Amino acid sequence: MKSGFLAIFYRPEEKVLEKVLEKVLEEVTENQQKILKAILTNKNITTIELASIVGISERKIRENTKKLKIRGLLRRIGPDKGGYWEVVK
């Protein structure tokens, strides 16, 4: 009976977590999705390369990466020169 009791409370939390994750992913724009996919392919990708792949300006790339970092979906490891991107899963 004790394990059934725990399952009752655990499952709703899983559903809530799934809904939160779905909402976060829905709020990611198409350009931000392209940025994340490109970074997953090459963690050392530059802003210039991202701009070319996504088809937007370098300034817009910086704005979008900033938004992704604020949301906790993207992290910069190390300095601007010599560092790399990490997609937070």
Task: Map the helices and strands.
Layout: H1 2-26, H2 30-41, H3 47-54, H4 58-70, E1 74-77, E2 84-87
Antiparallel strand pairs: 1-2
Helix pairs in contact: 3-4
Termini separation? 35 Å
Overall average pLDDT: 82
Question: SS-based structural class?
Answer: mainly alpha
Give the ordered list of helices and strands: HHHHEE
- How much of the sequence lies in strands comes to 5-15%
User: In which range does the helix fraction lie?
Assistant: 55-70%
Supply Rg. 17 Å
Outline the biggest β-sheet. 2 strands, antiparallel
Q: What's the total number of strands? A: 2
Q: Kindly report the spatial arrangement of strands forming the biggest sheet.
A: 1-2
Structural overview:
The chain has 89 residues and is mostly helical. 65% of the residues lie in helices and 9% in strands. It is built from four helices and two strands, in the order H-H-H-H-E-E. It has helices at 2-26, 30-41, 47-54, 58-70, and strands spanning 74-77, 84-87. It has a two-stranded antiparallel sheet. A hairpin with a 6-residue loop joins strand 1 (74-77) and strand 2. It is globular. The mean pLDDT is 82.
Provide a short characterization of the protein structure.
It contains four helices and two strands; from the N terminus they run ααααββ. The protein has helices spanning 2-26, 30-41, 47-54, 58-70, and strands at 74-77, 84-87. It has a two-stranded antiparallel ribbon.
Distinctive features:
single chain; 2 strands; 89 residues; globular; two-stranded antiparallel sheet; 4 helices; mainly alpha
